[in-house]
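Incident review: delayed structure delivery

Summary: a single-chain prediction request sat in the queue longer than the usual turnaround. Root cause was a stuck worker, restarted by the on-call engineer. No data loss occurred. The affected request and its eventual output are reproduced below so the record is complete for anyone auditing the incident later.

Affected input:
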Amino acid sequence: MQLGMIGLGRMGNGMTDRLREHGHDVKTYDPKVESRTASSLDELKTQLDTPRAFWMMVPAGEITEAVFQDLLKLGEKGDAIVDGGNSNFRDSQRRHVEAAERGIDFVDAGVSGGIWGLEVGFCLMVGGGEQSVKRLEPIFKALAPEDGYAHVGASGAGHFTKMVHNGIEYGLMQAYAEGFEIVEHSEFDVDLHQLSGIWRYGSVVRSWLLELLHTAFEEHGNKLDDIAPWVEDSGEGRWTIAEAIAENVPAPVISAALFARFSSRDEINFAAKVSAALRNQFGGHAIKAMAQAEAHSDDPPSH
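Output delivered after worker restart:
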């Protein structure tokens, strides 16, 4: 199948390579990448046969909105736009309506897999109309590992479930972070690299995140000395909590994990180092070096 990939960052590049490995014809556009096949969205359009399929893999918010509006102007009846970024599901519902008014399909795809997706596949949670999703399924199935893709519901459902997925991720990471901080502060001289290693086998807390933490200790040492205790949040945790409040659903663990990220920007703690290391391991998210943190220690928190 043919696809126009817009955005060749950490995720978009890996997704493009995986699709090509599975025999799909992927044309690409990213103003910051020289290896693109097109130098503009207009040129990308000319490289695709009708009905076209465009995949946006760009940062959520203003950039996604700008690209979406450009595609609405360029697209023709029968074309499809997929948003694979971490957009708010309410925005995706609105975009579905706007696209439908022009006869263009809009599909929201929650994508998880980070920088490891090329190798092991990307988990895909897809929202949209039945026919729209069915037409694009060869792409979804090529990107995902076996049993790692599902059409989860109507427009917005893909980004809604990815939002909750990331909220859960906040809680899991924080539990590991706090646990290893307790061990690190204890009277016992425990080798954290060794401990995270043995917990990968037979333990009820074993997981892929724990495997990544083991790798982080291997790369940065037991004290994670070169990692600043500064943990960003990209929005999904806040949105998950807002929905929990709107639905009268208690979410104390996810809420506490989000607030812990806020506090990481004001105080030095080992748990924040663990969380920062994990975000770098699974998603390639930038970590602040200790020197950077010290240079910005007087800056107001960035929320």
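Verification: DSSP finds 13 helices and seven strands in the chain.
Action items: add queue-age alerting; document worker restart procedure.
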